[in-house]
Please model this.
Amino acid sequence: MGTSTGRGHEHSHSQNRFAVPPTPLRLGVDSERTGRGVTIAFLDSGFYPHPDLTQPINRIVAYEDITSTGASLQSNRTPDDSDWHGTMTSVAGAGNGRLSDGVYRGLASEARLVLVKVSDRGKITEPNIERGLRWVIANKDRYNIRVISISLGGDDDVSYQQNAVDQAAEDAVRAGMVVVVAAGNSGCTERHKTVPPANAPSVITVGGYDDNNKPGSEPALYCSSFGVTADGIVKPEVIAPAMWVAAPILPGTDAYRRAEAVSIIASSPDYMIREIARAASGGNENGLWKRADLPDWLRVAAVDAIRAELSRLLEEGKIIAAHYQHVDGTSFAAPVIASLVALMIEANPLITPAAVKHILISTANRIGSAPAIRQGYGVVDATRALEEAERESHFAEELFDCPPRVVDRRLEFTHHNDSASSVSLAGDFNNWDHTRVPLARTERGNWRAEIDAPLPGVYRYKLVIDGRRWIEDPANLIKEPDGYGGFNSVLQIS
Model:
């Protein structure tokens, strides 16, 4: 990339040798979709009006600080540490790459944004998360909010029916918004279960994977929180990139100034490095050498030694361009999915939250070498999800989220799958013989079957697609490992 001007400076915004692929390239998403016309609400600790969100057009349509009535979002104020996380998540999902010459843009680079700060002096509490969600619900129509991205969580895994944060998240989905939540990063600890609102049944909980910065290779699991919730629901539903994700360095901070200076020096020719080092001897506190925080003894070292030190600083700081670094955590996997959802809605504005969730899980691909309990339905397939969203023409919620139910002593099963040639049922109630209970396609595009309601008890079952692919029921959130690397859906008849 060439030289660009922004915020009163002129220097190269090009990627360095430690660069990571932009998220659209990593996910194989066509640049035709950019989230145009869709509004995403981000709930986070705090925010800064980053140029990737405000230039050349300010796409931040609203800012709300739950803890400070009337607070405004100003670029000339001193950034707070709590601003960094929300700035990174919102730009990772919806930035346009302004400070990278368009390279490090998010998937939803033309989406509108509503930013909701829920921290109080850096502390995040469940009451404030709930207040943030309630504010978004109340202002949904005012700003046409269709997606909520949440990269924070509450305290403990409790039943969603008794938790105010979970209830607010469920209400947001019922109001017509897709709620995407980071699973958390406790998957490699004993306390690995998700917490509110990631344990709410209707939200899309996102875990993470690591492709070792090699898109297209089989990824490994990230240490995402996972497991069976207090309500018996398996989380997360899908996994997305949680390593090597490009995100901004917070403007106005020492880290920003240092990364910029190190990047400028590292991209300079040898003779310029010598001049920069020589200028530092004059005690110029505003010089590049001082801003890069390079030691005085290095000024007289060979250029190769200076370059080696600069490379070390870039790599250790995860700096990938003058104003960006790569980050890790499910905090960044969630906005990646939220931005993909914005593209799905752009492609099909009539699509419902239940349809979006169904498409994401039904097009995902499990990592065969990894436990299903830790990845849900697997790695999100952005290309297939967008294709399915464009084709989706059924918008009744019951087509997507109706688990088996007993009606007049008959047990009814439904499944939505437009691409299947046949669907059948196999479980404890038919001796796992998938030929005995075929589902019939209805006029509304659904598959449906009825059997006599079995005696009270707990039953396991699967759906069989086209006679060969055995899957758990996407509409039934209660499931358990089947002993073969997948899940059985679980049904309790009382």
The mean pLDDT is 92. The radius of gyration is 25 Å. The CA atoms of residues 89 and 332 lie 6 Å apart. DSSP finds 13 helices and 26 strands in the chain.
